Amino acid sequence: MTTIPERIVQVRVGQSGGDGLMWEAPLYITFDVELKPSKKPNKGTVTLYNLNDEHVAFCEAKNQVVQLSAGEGVPSLLFQGDVSPKESGTAWEGGTRKTVLKIADGRRKYTETNFSGSYPPNISRDTILADVIAASGVPSGYIATLPPKQYPAGWAWIGRWAAALDDLLANDAEWSIQHGALQILLAGVPRPGNAVVVSAATGMIGSPVRKKKGVEFKHRLDSRIWPGGPVQFEARDFKGAHRVTRVKHVGDSRGQTWETRGSAVPV
User: Could you give the CA distance from residue 139 to residue 112 in angstroms, rounded to a whole number?
Assistant: First the structure.
């Protein structure tokens, strides 16, 4: 008889760089988070059931960050994001108290951080890019090597760092914030690394569905399926290497829902 590993959900809430508080079973937790390799902040919802008054107040404090981890046997980080106070809140539904946390990855960095700089003629893009990334305050994750580019007339900027990054990358690359770290991928190119195999043997649910611009699929919850990352489909009627364009992790601590839903395009 095959033993199914224990499904674990952990939610940590606190200030950036601090310890905070963490909840897991037997507390009931549900989550629905979506990640894309695009500049708009990834968003999600984490719901904690029947917290006490002190813990509700803690979750609703200003500038809280949520880390969501889940997995079978050993949990892995699925999502990290800033709590949006205007969208979050606590309410009673019958005899159940629900604390709903709406979160966005890098929301405050995206909306509140500016950059200004002026550079001489023939400056290289790599030099400016390093300064823009440093000014953002966002840690670097995977940063692709960009094609060489110089600015004969120099380059100057005053405004949001995110818009400056858009200007520098142009059509050569796409950027996003994943788990609190900056990711830059060459346009249309998967993030390097071994492809995650999606098959009946690995936990694929149903069969991939062909769409006009790629394929949609479902899999048992798997944090390795990453926005912009490579996947290899090994279905009976569908095989091939693809790049993930959307990942949605949906689950709850009592096991009724435990899925990764994704979209991908051929490479």
Answer: 16
Tokens of residue 22, six digits? 């963490």
Domains of the chain: 7-108 (2.30.300.10), 113-186 (3.55.50), 196-266 (2.30.130)
Do 150 and 124 meet the contact criterion of CB atoms below 8 Å apart? yes
Q: Is the pLDDT of residue 1 over 50?
A: no
CB 234 within 8 Å of CB 215: no
In the predicted structure, residue 237 carries a pLDDT above the cut 60: yes
CB-CB contact of 62 with 25 (8 Å):
no
Partnered with residue 174 across adjacent β-strands are 185
Could you read off the pLDDT of 56-87 as tens digits, one per residue?
999 999 999 999 999 998 999 999 999 999 99
The predicted-structure confidence for 130-163, as pLDDT tens digits, reads as follows 999 999 999 999 999 999 999 999 999 999 999 9
In this prediction, residues 9-25 reach a mean pLDDT of 91
Phi, psi of 112 (to 5 degrees): -115, -10
Overall pTM > 0.90: yes
